[in-house]
Specification:
It is elongated, with a radius of gyration of 24 Å. It is 36% helix and 21% strand. The protein has 233 residues and is α/β, with parallel strands linked by helices.
Length: 233
C-alpha cells in the first residue's frame, strides 16, 4: 500500500477570493475553525494562502525598526498592516502539492516549511483539496492485520523473495517485531529498512539472527533495538 495525498486529503476546502476583505477573512477562519485558507483567483487556481499570522499584523501594529532595514520593513511588514484584502494579505506563491504525491512527501514539506496544511492542486493549479497534519497522521490508524499482511506478502515474499513461514512477524499498535534466521547481514538490513516504510508502521523491533552470528544482529543494529519511524525519514 502506497498512500498518496489524494487518498487522505479533505475535498471540502474553505477558500477565499483574492478580493475578500479583512473582515470576511476573519469570519471565515473563525466560522470554520481553521488557521489559514487558500486564496484563489476567478479561475479557481491557488495564488496564495492567508493565515491568522497575516491578519495579526493589524492587531500587533509593529513599530518601524531603526537603521538600514527600515526600507525593507516599509515594503514588507508595513504593507500587511495597511492591507485590506486577501490579495494584499496573503503569502504568495502558495506552497502546494499534487494529489499523486506520496504521503511521506507531504509530511516532509510540512516539516521543512513549518506549515500545518497544504492546498492540493491539479497540474494546472486548480484547487481540489487540502491536506493537514492530521490527515498525514491518519495513516497510523491502519489496522495491524493489514500491516502484517503487507509485510509478509508484499515485502518478505514479493520484494525479497523469501518464505514468510521462515520468519515470525507480529504487529501490535503499529510496532512490527521480526524474529527468525537470515543468511546475510545485507538482506536483514534491507528487510528492516523496507518494513520501516510500510504505511502505518510506527517502529520495527529487530530480533533477526544472522547465520554465523547466533544471537547477534548485524551492526549498526542491536538485538531488540527499536527503530522509530519519522515521517519522510
Amino acid at each position: 500500500m502506497n498512500t498518496t495525498v489524494g487518498d487522505v486529503m479533505t475535498t471540502r476546502v474553505i477558500a477565499v477570493r483574492r478580493t475578500a476583505d479583512f473582515k470576511q477573512i476573519v469570519s471565515v477562519l473563525r466560522k470554520y475553525r481553521v488557521s489559514a485558507c487558500p486564496v484563489i483567483n476567478e479561475g479557481g487556481k491557488v495564488v496564495g494562502v492567508v493565515s491568522e499570522a497575516d491578519l495579526l499584523f493589524k492587531e500587533a501594529e509593529p513599530g518601524p525598526p531603526a537603521g538600514l532595514i527600515r526600507l525593507r520593513w516599509k515594503l514588507g511588514e508595513e504593507s500587511k498592516v495597511n492591507a485590506v484584502s486577501a490579495g494584499q494579505l496573503m503569502t504568495s506563491p502558495a506552497v502546494t502539492i499534487h494529489p499523486g504525491a506520496p504521503i511521506v512527501v507531504a509530511a516532509r514539506v510540512m516539516q521543512d516549511r513549518r506549515i500545518k496544511r497544504l492546498p492540493v492542486v491539479t497540474e494546472d493549479g486548480l484547487l481540489i483539496g487540502i491536506i493537514s497534519r492530521s490527515d498525514v497522521l491518519s495513516v497510523y490508524e491502519r489496522p495491524d492485520s493489514d500491516i502484517e499482511n503487507e509485510v509478509c506478502k508484499d515485502v518478505i515474499a514479493g520484494e525479497l523473495g523469501l518464505n514468510p513461514a521462515d520468519m515470525d512477524v507480529t504487529v501490535t499498535s503499529g510496532i512490527v517485531t521480526l524474529s527468525g534466521p537470515m543468511d546475510s547481514q545485507d538482506r536483514a538490513l534491507e528487510l528492516v529498512a523496507r518494513i520501516r516504510h510500510v504505511d502505518g508502521v510506527v517502529a520495527v523491533r529487530d530480533r533477526i539472527e544472522v547465520a554465523g552470528q547466533p544471537g547477534v544482529s548485524p551492526q549498526p543494529r542491536e538485538r531488540g533495538t527499536t527503530v522509530v519511524v519519522g515521517a519522510g525519514r
